[in-house]
Amino acid sequence: MAQASNEKPNQPIDKFESMLKTDDVYFFDAEDFEDIIHHYLNNGKIALAKKAIKIGLQQHPASVELKLLEVEVLVFENHLDIAENYLDVLQTLDSTNEEIFIQRANIFSKKDNHEAAVALLNEALGLSENSFDIHSLLGMEYLFMDDFKLAKESFMRCVAFDEQDYSSLYNVIYCFEFLEDFDGAIHYLNDYLERNPYCEVAWHQLGKQYFTKKMYPEALTAFDFAIISDDTFIGAYFEKGKVLEKLGKYNEAIENYEATIQMEDPTSHAYLRIGRCHEQLENDEMAKYYYYHTVHEDPLLDKGWLAITDFYFRRKEYEKALYYINKALNIDGENPQYWKKCAHINSALEKFDQADFAYKQSIDLGNYELPTWLGWADVACQNQDIAGAVHILLQGQEFYPESAEIKYKTAGFQLEMNDMINARISLIDALKLDFGKLELFSSQFPQYIDTDWVRNIVSKVERSLRQ
């Protein structure tokens, strides 16, 4: 039987959990059940939320709010048809309850019908006295629809309602960034900081906008203010370090990265950036020390392995570079950047068969960058496969139809094959695309640049371009 409880009314969760451990049944107000259920839902304890809903409806079978929480759980668990049937019944009981429209919107959102979800949320707005949560949901629906302008406006309303709603603040800035309106973001954040001068989150975001615009002194000031507002804000120290790197102040950058390590468990990203700073300072042993720590901390961080490989590659220690890129490939053989670097190293070692294989792997895994096509063609040429080199360049041309580099290189290889007709077409196309890059052709194919055949083509195209 239900018992009265001497528990304080502000302790319904403790009281409920105590009840679950015994055979007693305590009575709760419907509002208490709502608080208990919200607590469990917010903490991801769905099973306990469902228990609270079941007991709550046994004690308050007419409570629309408890039934709506049951619908919320059904939607979360993707029992959408059952949830819709419940909502149909509830709407006959209370047709002006905005939560009914919100849950219907959630169902449509789950079905990827975001336009219908928006329409229902706008209906809920007309019924609600407190529209804060609805604007947040609208913002998310607009994000799903890639309508970043309307999403930004919705999240701005949330921030205007509660300036401590940092989740919405982040979303506002995300929308500005996606719209590439960095000036708009800077203006918005400065306006926000006029009202909240000690908000470390806003200072941090402002610094990132300045960094994007390469306004490094302003970015540095913003991150300093973020640290003044919260001297344990790790993100501000890390971003400040990146700014100091850009300004060439590598020792100061190291101090900021080390601060993040001292405040929290070390991260591979911090080790990596410290290593790069030491390399810039020509502290080679320290650079290696931190690069090795980077891959020890996170063996799957591709930037770490590439940093060690590049370290040796820049010093022309190609065998060591090859050793480390092969270790990286053993960890992640599906990484196109690893294969591209492997190709560069094998080319430097004049192992052109291996380089050809590595370039092919990189392309097959989705690396379609222009230098990859050009490098692969050069390797094919070194392997005496001129026809293969031309074929590679024609593939690359599909991705870069306006690339003069591809055209000049194609013309040179076609001349090597004595394919004069296609060589003429390729060279004319290259000159029309970028006459100024004729030097690329001259440097790679000096044996042809001074021939009458090439001079005549160059002269004719030059005259046509002047007209």
Largest sheet, spatial ordering of strands? 1-2
CATH topology of the domain at 265-367: Serine Threonine Protein Phosphatase 5, Tetratricopeptide repeat
**Percentage of residues in strands:** under 5%
Shape, please? elongated
What structural category do the secondary elements indicate?
A: mainly alpha
Name of the CATH homologous superfamily of the domain at 265-367: Tetratricopeptide repeat domain
Organism: Pricia antarctica
TPR repeats: 234-267, 302-335
Keywords: TPR repeat
Pfam family, one: TPR_8
Protein described:
TPR repeats lie at residues 234-267, 302-335. It holds the Pfam family TPR_8. By secondary structure, the protein is mainly α. The protein contains 28 helices and 2 strands. 77% of the residues lie in helices and 1% in strands. Strands 1-2 form a two-stranded parallel sheet. Helix 1 links the parallel strand 1 (2-3) and strand 2. The protein is elongated. Residues 1-9 have low confidence and may be disordered.
Summarize the structure.
TPR repeats lie at residues 234-267, 302-335. This protein has 467 residues and is an all-alpha fold. Helices cover 77% and strands 1% of the residues.
Search tags:
single chain, 467 residues, mainly alpha, Serine Threonine Protein Phosphatase 5, Tetratricopeptide repeat, two-stranded parallel sheet, 77% helix, elongated, disordered N terminus, TPR repeat, TPR_rpt, TPR-like_helical_dom_sf, Tetratricopeptide repeat-containing protein
